Amino acid sequence: MQLRPEQLEAHLARGLRPLYTVHGDEPLLAQEAADAIRAAARAAGGSERQVFHVAGAHFDWSAVLGAARSPGLFASAQLVEIRIPSGKPGKDGAEALQRYAERVAQGGAEGVTTLVQLPRLDGAQAKAAWFAALDAAGVSLRVETPERRALPAWLAQRLARQGQRVPAGEAGERALAYFADCVEGHLLAAHQELQKLALLHPPGELSLAQIEAAVQDVARYDIARFTEALWAGQVARVLRVLDGLRAEGQSAVFVHWSLAEDLRALARARTALDEGKPLPLALREARAWGARERQFERVLPALGEAALTRLLAAASRCDGVVKGLRPHGWPPEPWEALRRLALLVLQALQPPRPGAAPRLRVLQ
After folding, report:
1. Tell me: the pLDDT tens digits for 83-96?
2. Against a cut of 0.85, is the pTM above it?
3. CATH entry, 223-349, from 1.10.10.10, 1.20.1440.230, 1.20.272.10, 3.40.1080.10
4. Residue 268: is it exposed, middle or buried by C-beta count within 10 angstroms (0-12/13-18/19+)?
């Protein structure tokens, strides 16, 4: 059974399941989910707790298997936590987790609530037999950082929990957008800023001015956020993320490589489409999966072969800049060259308007 983090509270109110698996890369949401499960276990009489931290190839899994059979010494129920920071239990661990999940599914762990904590899983780990067994025997929660477009709603929900809100209409949207820009990519800091607002202001409505005065810019950026904003056509956000990556000391070479890889993949998908292949097959041949696949689905109709050829030529010249060369007509500074390349991509994604001035041509 799979749940979203926001569904957990209502689920626990209906009763506690014997096995929970929390996996993902968002520390705040993972911690909140684990704390909610622990609190529900304590409310059910589970005052005894055993924690197993799986590290290294020689972990003794027999103790974990034994915990599912052993009743609490001083309590009618107990909580067993299995933490696997690497997400890789190994061969012995995989077999042990499958046996553990089977025992839970057959009712052999009465009085025991188990919490398995994992990091973000890759495709192979998510399809592994041990994870499938955990998922089938209990409840799994995938905790991930909300996408930028979902962040204002997340912040509004958190404000409501502490009795605060933003004005209705456009004023409230601007306030939440400003708040989201300040905390993007850093939910732990977002949580702290929310707590600060609760301390500074009483329950009720918060204005944009109050949020601007209280909330610090603690946003963190990575390459994925840059490409997400780029392929969504969000000009202001693209430039803001580029500035953030530069300020955080990110490598301009790596940023360029990521963008150039996307352009090459799009060119392969465009060629496959022009050969008459269906879009899903074209995207598979371009090795585009998950979020990247969804992004490419949106932008491919706007990017013909000629446009992609021009962008690849621009990426080649930008590559020279970030590696210390001085291509004619390009800014000599790597981040300025990346800014120009990003703007050329954004320009190519915009549909031409009747009567508009000709677009900037990439120097050959």
Report:
1. 999 888 888 899 99
2. no
3. 1.20.272.10
4. middle
